[in-house]
Amino acid sequence: MGAKRLSAGRRTNLALLLLLALALASGGLAFAIGSRLVRWIVIAHGLAGLAILLLVPWKSAIAGRGLRRSRRGSWASIAFSVLVAVAILSGIGHATGILGSAGGVTAMQLHVGAALASIPLAVWHVAARRVRPRRTDLSRRVMLRTGVLLGGSALAYGALEGLVAVTSLPGGARRSTGSYERGSFRPGEMPVTQWLNDHVPEIDAESWELTVRSASGERAWSYQELAAFEDRVRATLDCTGGWYAEQDWDGVFLWRLLPGFDEARSLGIGSATGYGRRFPLADSANLLLATRVGGAPLSAGHGFPGRIVAPGGRGFWWVKWVDAVEVSVTPWWWQSPFPLT
Fold first, then answer.
1. CB-based contacts of 280: which residues, under 8 Å, 6+ apart?
2. What pLDDT does 330 receive?
3. Are residue 168 and residue 257 in the same domain, yes or no?
4. Where among 178, 204, 222 does a domain terminate?
5. Helix (H) or strand (E) holding 164
6. Angle, to 10 degrees, between the axis of helix 56-68 and the axis of helix 74-96?
7. Could you tell me which of 287, 290, 283, 212 has the C-alpha nearest to residue 250?
8. Is residue 308 in a domain?
9. DSSP per residue over 17-67, as a string?
10. Measured between alpha carbons, how far is residue 207 from residues 267, 291, 323 in Å?
11. What is the mean pLDDT of each run of 10 residues along the chain (341 residues)?
């Protein structure tokens, strides 16, 4: 009986480990991707989270036995469990719209923050209490139980979505990325956010210049020169903070500003704050350096004097306060998936 209990506990831990890995991977992909594919990634993320929730009764029994043995490092296991619980519950709160924000912290920020904080504890937990896969883990009985678990999480996901629809909770209006509409075609109501420790600079349009560099030299563009362009794009800014806004953006497509090039492979976009992202050179046909939104100049918080509009890209690609564009032979993917600062 004791051996069976230990085996069941080991398999529960292994299932939780795999589900946590799936939840973290799908969550990261959902942040990185803005295309239609993100819908399926978000669904996979939700299924993984609900499957973890369904395993709570079994994991609680295992944890109870472990706590009774007063094992060293129990505090880390408890902290890890609390963070995972916060991540799942805040994720459900965001998806349904029941949990908005408190004290300036949104449900999405709480969800992501708890998940990121749990990663080092998860690594410690795996190293301290290793769960080794065995050949018997692929038995018919285990596969059947896995199917029941996944089926249960799918039913729970469908029930949750049905509840949101029937009760007209705010979650029914969220985008495929999970974001909620904020200020579409009303730029003044669009939230002001930036990545991590970035800040809103005060920039004088008269002295500001956009420097475009390439192997053949560089060219400086004044604000007045750029504001004279009238290229327009209707695009949706989908912030990883959990909101989106569709706007009409006016400015100039980047390809108009670029000199001739031969072996260039990417565009490095730099901000006055030191922030930056690198794009494939081919994207220059679709990337807009916006100087206006909704027919009016950008506000300081929204990127004045110029920001990148990157249709299909999540918010951290929409570099604000742009002051430099570099045509480079460096591949666009030679950068961290997400900005580090």
1. 265, 266, 267, 332
2. 93
3. no
4. 178
5. helix 140-166
6. 160
7. 290
8. yes
9. HHHHHHHHHHHHHHHH--STTHHHHHHHHHHHHHHHHHTHHHHHHHHHHHH
10. 24, 15, 11
11. 51 83 92 83 93 83 62 75 91 91 83 91 75 69 83 93 93 92 96 88 96 90 97 96 95 92 88 96 95 97 98 95 95 91 73
Query: Can you give the residue range of the structural domain that contains 210?
Result: 182-328
Which own/partner pairs from 297-304 qualify as long-range (CB within 8 Å, at least 24 positions apart)? 297/227, 299/187, 299/188, 299/192, 300/200, 300/201, 300/202, 300/203, 301/192, 301/200, 302/187, 302/190, 302/192, 304/203, 304/205
Query: What pLDDT, in 10s, does the model give residues 157-172?
Result: 999 999 999 999 999 9
Same domain flag for 64 and 166:
yes
CATH number (domain holding residue 265) = 3.90.420.10
The pairing of beta strand 209-214 with beta strand 217-222? antiparallel
Which residues lie below 8 Å from residue 31, measured CB to CB, with a gap of 6+?
Answer: 112, 240, 314, 338
**Which of 145, 178, 211 finishes a domain?**
178
Residues 190 and 151 in one domain: no
248 and 232 in contact (C-beta within 8 Å)?
A: yes
Counting the structural domains of the chain, the total is 2
Q: Find out whether 247 and 190 touch, Cβ atoms under 8 Å.
A: yes
Is residue 333 included in any domain, yes or no?
no
**DSSP summary character for residue 314:** B
Q: Indicate if 213 and 247 belong to the same structural domain.
A: yes
